[in-house]
Backbone:
């Protein structure tokens, strides 16, 4: 004889209870791990900021509000959820430049990068890819290729940033592409050009002075 | 007195997953992560260990609750249990091993749909004692981890000329880039499946003769 089927109420109660216990466990795990996850994200970003702005000893986080930059008021050591840039200062407190996050389509998926911009000279002074799924061994050379990285030590943004074949760079606004990773290198150039054009009018040396006075989100000097 | 056969049975359940019923090379289960994330030994190992945590945790819980869970909703309850373990492992990896977590990306969350895990709950844990379920889960996930590590090691050595990130060959080595690309996953799994089937057939022939 077949066992009696459990009633709908019992089925609903079982699923409801399982969902409740699962929810409580997950909230607990989330609360325990979230501070560490946010700190990891900040540390990765912070390390990149110092790398793309050589000579920086302290950083102020600035957020865009109504088209102008204002100091970030959130807790130090966290990545702002708003659109933000990071002003880097040298030991004398003089502005080195801004670290600007940017992203755009790559060969496989979105490429996220951070670049250092010197608003006085209107040049890019460093670039680091933060996240990409470019083809291992080919497209991911945009991260590992030292010669490609050298393009971004003093790259003029005017009249516009353009990609050229390897070895053909003749002007300060040109980027030598990587052979075998042309699409990925051109994607990086496209992202930088679009972002620099958008940000250059906002990122003035005067705008940074305000952030410096505020000391709002300044992080500990390294 | 019954302890001896019980222990032998548990040992058999533990060993079967490693070799005789290896989930990847014999049962051909969980091929999605076996192909997708095994471009290095580290990634294969981390994926294997994350799957181990989920499979062992879910098997223990399903076996413990096997008399309480009503049959009509058992699969839904298994999925809630598995999803809870997977989300936990996702958060913990993001907090403790951010680099590995970034490399494995969505495949950690996708452990929830690995047919090996739900399959073991339905076929084994829901019908056996906690001890046997633990032995089965450890054996199966051990076999899965070994398989992923083996595929990862072969692909990393050939495709990147390194093992665990340490370069093995000199400057003159030209890496077979295809091995760390998706086709390399299919090639490696295909060759290893043939080798396993051949080795198993040879051993069985020897035993029967």
Residues:
């Amino acid at each position: 004889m077949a066992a009696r089927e459990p009633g709908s109420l019992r089925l609903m109660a079982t699923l409801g209870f399982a969902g409740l216990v699962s929810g409580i466990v997950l909230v607990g795990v989330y609360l325990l791990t979230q501070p560490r996850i946010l700190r990891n994200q900040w540390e990765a970003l912070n390390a990149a900021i110092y790398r793309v702005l050589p000579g920086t000893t302290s950083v102020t986080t600035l957020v865009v509000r109504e088209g102008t930059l204002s100091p970030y008021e959130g807790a130090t050591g966290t990545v702002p959820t708003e659109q933000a840039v990071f002003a880097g200062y040298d030991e004398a407190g003089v502005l080195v430049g801004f670290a600007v996050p940017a992203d755009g389509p790559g060969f496989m998926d979105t490429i996220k990068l951070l670049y250092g911009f010197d608003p006085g000279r209107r040049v890019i002074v460093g670039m680091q890819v933060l996240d990409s799924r470019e083809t291992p061994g080919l497209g991911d050379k945009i991260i590992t290729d030292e010669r490609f990285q050298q393009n971004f030590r003093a790259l003029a943004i005017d009249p516009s940033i353009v990609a050229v074949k390897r070895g053909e760079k003749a002007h300060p606004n040109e980027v030598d592409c990587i052979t075998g990773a042309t699409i990925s290198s051109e994607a990086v150039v496209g992202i930088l050009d679009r972002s620099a054009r958008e940000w250059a009018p906002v990122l003035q040396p005067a705008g940074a002075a305000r952030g410096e006075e505020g000391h709002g989100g300044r992080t500990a000097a390294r | 007195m019954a302890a001896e056969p019980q222990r032998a049975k548990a040992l058999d359940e533990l060993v079967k997953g490693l070799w005789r019923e290896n989930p990847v090379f014999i049962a051909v289960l969980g091929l999605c992560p076996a192909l997708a994330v095994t471009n290095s030994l580290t990634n294969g190992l981390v994926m294997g260990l994350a799957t181990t945590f989920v499979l062992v945790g879910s098997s223990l819980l399903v076996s413990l609750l096997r008399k309480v869970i009503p049959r009509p909703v058992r699969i839904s309850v298994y999925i809630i249990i598995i999803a809870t373990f997977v989300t936990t492992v996702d958060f913990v990896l993001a907090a403790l091993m951010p680099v590995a977590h970034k490399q494995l990306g969505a495949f950690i969350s996708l452990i929830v749909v690995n047919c090996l895990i739900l399959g073991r709950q339905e076929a084994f844990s829901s019908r056996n004692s906690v001890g046997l379920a633990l032995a089965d889960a450890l054996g199966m996930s051990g076999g899965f981890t070994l398989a992923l590590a083996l595929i990862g090691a072969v692909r990393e050595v050939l495709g990147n000329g390194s093992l665990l990130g340490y370069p093995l060959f000199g400057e003159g080595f030209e890496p077979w880039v295809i091995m760390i690309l998706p086709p390399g996953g299919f090639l490696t799994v295909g060759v290893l499946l043939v080798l396993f089937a051949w080795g198993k057939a040879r051993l069985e022939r020897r035993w029967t003769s």
